[in-house]
Structure formats: structure tokens, C-alpha cells
């Protein structure tokens, strides 16, 4: 053993280098800091990376959170715009549909009103016609049979009535003027031609021939008409005893009927 082994050394202990201190500080703080070999780093330089290293995660998280919030906001705004656009489109379609339904309802109401007005007009005309016929029937019930007490006559009226009775039972054919079938005005024209009187072909014109006479003053051979003078739709010939002969319709053909079977509107005298 050396005689100096137990003698404390007077050499100064070696101070750790700055890099060693930085290394220990880094390890102690939870971070490992590598120093360049042979470089001398001041003591305060070792602390700066620690601070920067600690702050970076915080900055990165904040940026990510902000970006996520911005994305959410943008998505919400886009969703709101899309929802508003859909609502606007739905409202527009609903408004157009409502307008269409309204127009259809108005059109239907007008058509119904027009139909009812037409029905009311026809009902009024029919009621007036029935009332007129009823009053005329009452007035004619006695005088019509006494004005001409017989269906036979002399001269032209007898020939006229004889021809008309010979046509009873024949068919009614619209536009026909004999000899096997007739319509109403065709029959009267053919009958009066037997006694040398030329009548127009249609009922409207026949109702304005000769002289207008009252239904309470009828004579054999008077032409009866239904409708109004100048626009009559049917004619027949009065044969006396409150009766007439006419080509009524396709179901009955040429028949003899009492006046109250279908009271005429007026009469004209051409004899």
C-alpha cells in the first residue's frame, strides 16, 4: 500500500460539465436532451427546449379543436341552408297546389250555378205552360164543343176532315209528307192541298198563316199549334167536338185526340 493511500487528496473534484448538467436536468424533467459532443451549452440553454417541448402539444390540440369546431359550424350552416331551401320549395309547391285547387273549385261552382239556373229556367217555363194550358182548358171545356157541333161539314171542310180521318193509324216519320207516313206539318200540308190551299212545309211557318183565332172560338179546319206563333214546334187540325187530328210522334203515329189530351197554345184560320 502506498504511504499516501489514506491521505485525502488535495485535488479539486471535477465539476460536471454543462452538458452533463443539462443531461441530468433533462432526465429529471422527463425529457431527454442530446448535446453535441464537445459543445459547451450554457445552463439556461438546456431549459428552453423543455419549455418549447411542453407547449407544442397544447398549441396543436387547440388548433385541432378550433379546426373541428369550424368544420362543425360550416356543416351546420350548410345543413341550415339546405333545410331552408327544402322548406322554401315545399311552400312553393303547396302554394301552387292550393291555387290550382282554388281555380278548379271556382270553375266547378260556376258550372253548378249555371246548371241550376238553367234547370230553374226550364222549370219556370214548364210551370207557366201548364198554368196556361190549365186556364185555356177550363175556358174551352164548353165553348169548343158548341162552336162546331159536328165533325162533318159541307164543302171544303168535309173533304178536309175526311182526308185526315183516312190517315189515322199511319206512321209518324220526321220529314215525311205521305202518302204512307207523315210528320205533323207534312200531314196538315197534305190535308189542305186536298181543298186547294197551299201551306208552307214547316210548323213555324204554318203557325203564322191566315188569321190568329182564340182557342175559345175554334171552327172545323182551324190549324192548331203548340209553342208560339212563328216558332211553333207542333201542329194539328181541329175537326170539331173538341177533338183534333195530328201526327203526334213516332210512338203513336197519326191519331185523333181530345183537346185536353195536350192543350194547344194557339190556332190560325185559313178557310
Automatic annotation (TrEMBL):
* UniProt key word Hydrolase: yes
Bias (Low complexity) occurs at 137-155
- Tell me which Pfam families the record gives: NLPC_P60
Q: Which UniProt keywords apply?
A: Hydrolase, Protease, Thiol protease
Organism from which the protein derives: Streptomyces lydicus
- PROSITE patterns to which the protein is assigned, alphabetical: NLPC_P60 (PS51935)
Q: Which InterPro entries match?
A: NLP_P60_dom (IPR000064), Papain-like_cys_pep_sf (IPR038765), Peptidase_C40 (IPR051202)
Q: Which GO terms describe its molecular function?
A: cysteine-type peptidase activity
**Keyword Nucleotide-binding found:** no
Give the region (Disordered) as residue ranges.
1-22, 102-155
Instruction: State the source organism's domain of life.
Output: Bacteria
Q: GO BP, one example?
A: proteolysis
What's the protein called, per UniProt?
Glycoside hydrolase
Q: Where is the composition biased (Basic and acidic residues)?
A: 102-136
Q: Which residues form the NlpC/P60 domain?
A: 154-271
Task: Give the family, as the similarity comment puts it.
Answer: Belongs to the peptidase C40 family.
Q: Which SUPFAM superfamilies match?
A: Cysteine proteinases
Amino acid at each position: 500500500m502506498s504511504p499516501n493511500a489514506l491521505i485525502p487528496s488535495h485535488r479539486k473534484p471535477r465539476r460536471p460539465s454543462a452538458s452533463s448538467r443539462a443531461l441530468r436536468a433533462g432526465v429529471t424533467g422527463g425529457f431527454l436532451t442530446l448535446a453535441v459532443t464537445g459543445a459547451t451549452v450554457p445552463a439556461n440553454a438546456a431549459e428552453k427546449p423543455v419549455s418549447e417541448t411542453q407547449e407544442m402539444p397544447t398549441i396543436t390540440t387547440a388548433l385541432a379543436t378550433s379546426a373541428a369546431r369550424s368544420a362543425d359550424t360550416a356543416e351546420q350552416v350548410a345543413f341550415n341552408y339546405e333545410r331552408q331551401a327544402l322548406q322554401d320549395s315545399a311552400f312553393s309547391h303547396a302554394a301552387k297546389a292550393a291555387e290550382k285547387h282554388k281555380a278548379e273549385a271556382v270553375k266547378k261552382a260556376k258550372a253548378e250555378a249555371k246548371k241550376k239556373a238553367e234547370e230553374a229556367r226550364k222549370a219556370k217555363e214548364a210551370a207557366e205552360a201548364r198554368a196556361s194550358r190549365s186556364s185555356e182548358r177550363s175556358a174551352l171545356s164548353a165553348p169548343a164543343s158548341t162552336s162546331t157541333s159536328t165533325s162533318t161539314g159541307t164543302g171544303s171542310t168535309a173533304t178536309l176532315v175526311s182526308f185526315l180521318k183516312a190517315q189515322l193509324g199511319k206512321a209518324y216519320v220526321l220529314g215525311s209528307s205521305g202518302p204512307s207516313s207523315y210528320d205533323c206539318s207534312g200531314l196538315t200540308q197534305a190535308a189542305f192541298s186536298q181543298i186547294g190551299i197551299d201551306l208552307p212545309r214547316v210548323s213555324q211557318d204554318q203557325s203564322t198563316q191566315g188569321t190568329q183565332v182564340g182557342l175559345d172560338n175554334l171552327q172545323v179546319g182551324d190549324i192548331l199549334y203548340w209553342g208560339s206563333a212563328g216558332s211553333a214546334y207542333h201542329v194539328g187540325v181541329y175537326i170539331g167536338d173538341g177533338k183534333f187530328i195530328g201526327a203526334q210522334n213516332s210512338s203513336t203515329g197519326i191519331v185523333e185526340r181530345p183537346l185536353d189530351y195536350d192543350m194547344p197554345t194557339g190556332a190560325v184560320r185559313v178557310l
